[in-house]
């Protein structure tokens, strides 16, 4: 049964995303699994993290219960420090960075991803409204958009679909999806299965993925370090 | 020199906020860069039929940790909210957000705006640009019905400026000319709102004489700021 088959924990999804960084990129991380990615990015890679509330150069979390630096927070509102060389900006400038195509990579969570790279991540179907926040701008503006999420919902519903059934946040933007069972690229010719979690076969990943997957000739098990 | 009036009582600084006013509220969350004192004064006015614009619904958080509490503006006095976070936010964990119900039953109109578009609409308002094209929102429900145009092979949505009647902003320090300096990420929406509004009222923790702020460090110039209120750092008047 695929429902009971072992899947990667959130930390390992984040670790796999972090392995994607070659060094020196400017990166925005969404809340949830994406926010964990920073923890697994070695400082020597020199990746600079952007918080859309107006900080380029997020440092570590501030110590709990102690205000190390007042009024310094990430986009989730959590108190953080800033790295040496960090820059503070207002919201308009912050999104000029985003919209202007200056971010190399953004990593967002997802409710659904379509085979053409559409992203639904701000609103479930049937709700009166959803909170889009900065997701639409970030998904549209980053040069490369990665989605990090569980492959299916807790109830086993598929999240990688031919077409999203939830309201769209951005159209045709997702480049790569990192889940607890696979790494999948979105290409003009459809979805390509690049990597599978330990113990998973391409056929099993296909069973939890609605659109047809082409299996990469270089298919491998998910690795947690770059080549 | 155009010295800005400093109001002892924050309520006096809001003397002309009347029914039907549109009000931009600074801040990213209910705490970070939010004008907590002016917000509490606004709650004490009788103004109704208001339009709020800001990152979330009109609310501020006082205190921290276990002691924190949320002050939420009476939804019955609100006609419309223009924001990027209509639900959730810090309030969800501790108190119900009455705006979730109000948006659902339609008693308060919601205009959902992507956060970057919201910031740019305010920036455009302050800069005298009535509309602009942005790639954000093409094909998304929150941009349905808006004009879409192709530039150099890519689609963009036409968005209008925002020019609120009032902006309530929070800065760390001001000089008597209304020049403002912010602290760290408390800056966020405050500068573009200050520029966009017809009347900008700033609450600050310190007021110094002109010349004591370096021209280089001033983030919002006093030309955008009309009234000042001196407040304590804990968000109380």
Which helices and strands occur, and which strands form pairs?
The complex is a heterodimer of chains A (227) and B (237).
Chain A (H helix, E strand, L loop, with lengths): L9 H9 L7 E4 L3 H4 L11 E4 L3 E7 L18 E9 L2 H9 L5 E4 L3 E3 L4 E2 L14 H7 L2 E5 L11 E2 L12 E5 L3 E6 L2 E7 L5 H6 L5 E9 L6
Parallel strand pairs in A: 1-2, 1-5, 5-8, 6-9, 8-10, 12-13
Antiparallel strand pairs in A: 2-3, 3-4, 6-7, 10-11, 11-12
Chain B lengths: L5 E2 L14 E4 L10 H9 L5 E4 L5 E4 L6 E4 L5 E6 L14 H8 L3 E4 L2 H13 L3 E4 L13 E4 L2 E7 L5 E10 L4 E2 L8 H7 L2 E10 L18 E4 L7
Question: What is this structure, in a nutshell?
Answer:
With about 230 residues, chain A is an alpha/beta fold. Chain A is built from 5 helices and 13 strands. The two termini of chain A are about 35 Å apart.
Write up what this structure looks like:
The complex is a heterodimer of chains A (227) and B (237). Chain A has a single domain, classed as Glutaconate Coenzyme A-transferase. Chain A has five helices and 13 strands. Chain A has helices at 10-18, 33-36, 91-99, 135-141, 202-207, and strands at 26-29, 48-51, 55-61, 80-88, 105-108, 112-114, 119-120, 144-148, 160-161, 174-178, 182-187, 190-196, 213-221. In chain A, the strands form two sheets. In chain A, strands 4-3-2-1-5-8-10-11-12-13 form a ten-stranded mixed beta sheet. The mean pLDDT of chain A is 95. Chain B has helices at residues 36-44, 98-105, 115-127, 190-196, and strands at residues 6-7, 22-25, 50-53, 59-62, 69-72, 78-83, 109-112, 131-134, 148-151, 154-160, 166-175, 180-181, 199-208, 227-230. The mean pLDDT of chain B is 94. The radius of gyration of chain B is 18 Å and the shape is globular. In chain B, helix 3 runs parallel beside helix 4. With 237 residues, chain B is of the alpha/beta class. The interface between A and B is large, with 43 and 50 residues.
